[in-house]
Structure formats: structure tokens, C-alpha cells
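Sharing a chain and its predicted structure for anyone who wants a worked example. Both blocks are below, sequence first, C-alpha cells second.
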Amino acid sequence: MGRAGTTALNPCQAEAFGGLGLRRESHHRNRGWLSPFVVNAERAKSVLVERNDEELVAAVRRGDTASFEALVRKYQPRIFATARRYARRESEVEDIVQEVFIKAYQKLDTFRGDAPFEHWLMRLAVRTCYDFLRVHQRNREHHFSDLSEPEKDWLDRFVAEPDQAPENAEAARTLVKRLLEMLSPKARLVITLLEIEERSVKEIAALTGWSVSLVKVRAFRARAEMRKCLQKLKREQYL
């Protein structure tokens, strides 16, 4: 391991990633390491147009780093979107994305092709995000006094008449983010996948490596944990 929670590269891998611009430099020293993430975007784009994922993976295994550039270019936006669901700071999002692609490069020989490459990569991304949550467990406490006035108003309406509180209100979305940050890593992961990304139990099982029955149990516990967090915020209003 390199920095806490990061994957170290051997010399050959480091040389290959140097060619891709995936430097393992601290974001505090070099915040621009992820722009544009690939050195030769035009070359990567041309490779991407010409070949599908399986062909690109086969080429990478033969040592063609340009083909990996094409995979990074194709899936970078989706990995960023996934990472932003679990990390608050952009520098942390960048670290997660970098970690995902480095792991993908290192583990490419484990891709058997019995499922699409995209599914394999997303499993890797979700598990990397889960590892991030476990390593970076901050103080998960939030208090009623931390809420904005719109959030407090929405919470009042939700408690009084749950069916009348608009789910798409900005205050509701902000409050949900606060509640997610109060959850344990397992609870946050399963709620995000189930309720925010609207994935099925079977999809979550495939992404996490948990059994279907375990996903159901953890979803039940996560909802109960979220209700407790919501009730805690509400009780504090009257203290």
C-alpha cells in the first residue's frame, strides 16, 4: 500500500501509468493531476472508436497502454459520478477515481469476460468507495442546529404530514445528504445503491459481493438506522 487507503504500483506499473498521466502525487501538491487524465486524448479517442471493450482489454494485456487510455476516457465520467456519492471533497473524489483505475489496471488479468467489462469495473468502483467510507469514518454527528431554515421547515412538514412533504425539494435533498453522512459505511452504501441509484437487490449483491439475503438484511437495518438519525435530529429541536 502507498498512502493510507491507496494502492502501490510496482516499477513496471508506475512506468506505464506515468505514460497515462496517472501520477501518484498528493493532491495537495498537484491538484491538476487529473486533467485531462490521459496524455493523448486524440489517440485514446481513435482507439476507442475502433475497438470494443473486450478488444481493448486484450490489447492492454499485450502491453498497449493506449488501449487503457481509451478505457479511462470512456468510463472516467461514470466513475467520477459514483465517487461523488461517497466523498464530500473533490480531492477525495479524485483520489477514489485514481484508485479505481489503478486497481483496474493491476487486476485486469482477473477479468474473465463472463460479464461486460463495465460491470466488472463498476464492482471495483463500488468496493473502492466502500473501502473509502471505512477508512475515512469522520465524526458522523449532525445536530438540528446545523440545519438550514429550509431544512428545518421541511423536517417539520415531514414529521407532521409525511405524504405532503415534497420529495424533490432542495431542502429534502440536502437533508438526505446529511442523513447519509450520519450512517455507518455499510448502511450508507446500501441506501445509496438501493434508494438513490435505484438498483435492484440482485444488482447490489453483484456489485458488493454480498449475498441477496445479506443485502436485504443490511437494507432493513440501514433504513432503521436512517430513521433513528432522523428522529434524533427532530428530538433535538425541543431540547
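Comments welcome. The chain has two domains: 11-135, 144-236.
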